[in-house]
Amino acid sequence: MKALIVNDDGIDSAGLASLPRVAVDAGLDVSVAAPHLERSGASASLSALEEDGTLSMSRRELPGPPDLEFFSVECSPALISLLAAEGVFGRPPDIVLSGVDLGPNTGHAILYSGTVGAALTAAGHGARAVALSLDGTAPSLWETAESVASRAARRATVHAPPGRVLNVNIPDVPLAELRGLRTAPLAEFGAVQAEIGEMEEDGLETRSVSVTFRSIDIDETG
User: Fold this and answer.
1) Cα–Cα distance between 218 and 210 in angstroms, integer?
2) Residue 205 in domain
3) Global pTM?
4) Distance CA 81, CA 88 (A)
5) Rounded to 5 degrees, what angle do the CA atoms 63, 170, 26 make?
6) Residue 116 lies in a domain
7) Which residue of 71, 78, 152, 192 could cross-link 117, Cys pair, CB 3.0 to 4.6 Å?
8) What does the pLDDT look like over 130-158, one tens digit per residue?
9) Distance (Å, rounded) from C-alpha 201 to C-alpha 207?
10) Which tens digit of pLDDT belongs to each residue from 175-193?
11) Distance between CA 27 and CA 192 in Å, rounded?
12) Sequence-ordered list of residues with C-beta below 8 angstroms from that of 196, at least 6 positions apart, any chain
């Protein structure tokens, strides 16, 4: 199976480093393409930075399994998924692994996430997709994230039908303390909150943007 790895934290993010290993170990034929800068909150937007109508894209040399190509693309994560579906990075992917995002993507406000947006776009073009997020702040426990990502990727390749998205949130705990994985519904409530500054002559200052969610309880049966 052909796999595309993408994210919204950018080509140089720590979370992108684990997924190529996971995909190669799962026996997938892997391409890696990510935004040249962080594009968190891009949702499924198909936006790009263009010069003279040309989308800028370059190959990068990054640590990882041998013989992998890494592409830095000046566009949103969802547009990268669309480009992959059109064969820009080789054969269109059977599965897209998006992440690992630093910060959770839970509740209905996942629709604001560039990580999830890339996965949804891939699914809309017939691929399986897994969006992976680590609920932590740097530095984080990427060993745990990689272990969970491996289980999720293998499950998706075997059991998920084309067009299905699996959204996985990983606790930032040592691997030995991980209590297992279980399914959960999306929380009914989620909100994006922004602190708005002063109106200026040439624009509006936005001091901070954060995403907050109401927690939900899940019983032992999931």
Assistant:
1) 25
2) no
3) 0.85
4) 10
5) 50
6) yes
7) 78
8) 999 998 777 678 899 999 999 999 999 99
9) 16
10) 999 998 888 888 776 545 5
11) 38
12) 204, 205, 206, 207
Distance CA 85, CA 4 (A): 10
| Number of separate domains in the chain | 1
- Whether the CB-CB separation of 93 and 119 falls below 8 Å is answered with no
Q: How far apart are CA 149 and CA 95, in angstroms?
A: 13
Alpha-carbon distance of 64 to 70, in angstroms, equals 10
8 Å CB contact between 72 and 87? no
In a domain, 199, yes or no: no
User: Residue 32 carries which side chain, given as an amino acid letter?
Assistant: V
Q: What's 141's domain CATH number?
A: 3.40.1210.10
Q: Give me the phi and psi of 58, to 5 degrees please.
A: -145, 155
Residue 146: strand, helix, or coil = helix
- Give the separation between CA 110 and CA 99, rounded to whole angstroms: 13
Q: Residue 171 sits in which domain range? A: 2-177
Q: Minimal CA–CA distance to 170: which of 74, 99, 79, 82?
A: 99
Residue 192 confidence (pLDDT): 54
DSSP state of 92: P
What is the token pair recorded at 41? 């909150």
